Amino acid sequence: MRLRNKVVLITGAGSGIGRSAALLFAKEGAQVVVNDLASEAGEETAAIIRSDGGEAVFIQADVTDPDSVQKMVERAIGAFGRIDVLFNNAGISGVGALHEVEPDAWDRIVSVNVRGVYLPNKYVLPHMMERRSGSIINMSSCVAEIGLARRASYAATKGAVLALTKSMQVDYASYNIRVNALLPGTILTPFVENFLKQSYADPQAGLDGIKKRQLSGELGRPEDVAQAALFLASDESKFMMGSPLYIDGGVVFGKNA
Ligand code: NAP
């Protein structure tokens, strides 16, 4: 029960890492506000939690839309009285070297991955500041630290999230709010399955190539990232501030051959 008495809001929790974190956080005693763009997927996450005896509500919202996010935050506080942990997890993938990325695709990924982190933070922070307490987890990626082929737009957004995290930490430390970033390597979720289909004529060959760049020889699982998020959400990480936490099978600091 590492999150007993904590209220957690997770964006993009209808799928992949967000869903896995929602299920784990609920098992650890949190009251979970599940957000997603897709109602069916988000409702399903909340229903699984409730059927396991946990507490969860689903709130549909688009993290790129200020009105939608503001209403989500108000409804979350209406449901559980406060938000102790905000996990800004929602994100989309982008493929291509810079010259291959069309302006609309660029704007879309920047909107979801950067504006979609800025907006929930903007509307949750005043509540955390008033209570002088909170833990914020911003989803970056190991591509913020290393160059990977044909990931220009995605890397730009995840680098922005990491820089934002450090800057936010300085501004909110005096309110007893911690702000940290997660930097996963390649984790097998629908997001990566889509990336493989978009990027490779032979997705299985693409997958085998990705496995080779991991020191682990395997892709990560959503549960691996959820466990790291649990640590950042809990008071066990109370001395971690403005830090990147890598869960990457050795991709950033290791060298394979
Ligand atoms: P996923 O399975 O695709 O889950 C992402 C969720 O975010 C989806 O349910 C998606 O809904 C939702 N979402 C997208 N746009 C949204 C919006 N505007 N408002 C609210 N929700 C929205 O992906 P994942 O692999 O779990 O990734 C989660 C996060 O981890 C992302 O930020 C990703 O960049 C990051 N990450 C992933 C990996 C990896 O290898 N998987 C590695 C590093 C970092 P829809 O399905 O309706 O679009």
TrEMBL record:
GO terms of biological process kind: bile acid metabolic process; fatty acid biosynthetic process
GO MF term (any one): quinone binding
This protein's UniProt keywords: Oxidoreductase
Taxonomic superkingdom: Bacteria
One Pfam family per UniProt: adh_short_C2
PROSITE patterns referenced in this protein's UniProt entry, alphabetically: ADH_SHORT (PS00061)
Similarity comment: Belongs to the short-chain dehydrogenases/reductases (SDR) family.
Name of the protein described by the UniProt record: SDR family oxidoreductase
Organism: Cohnella zeiphila
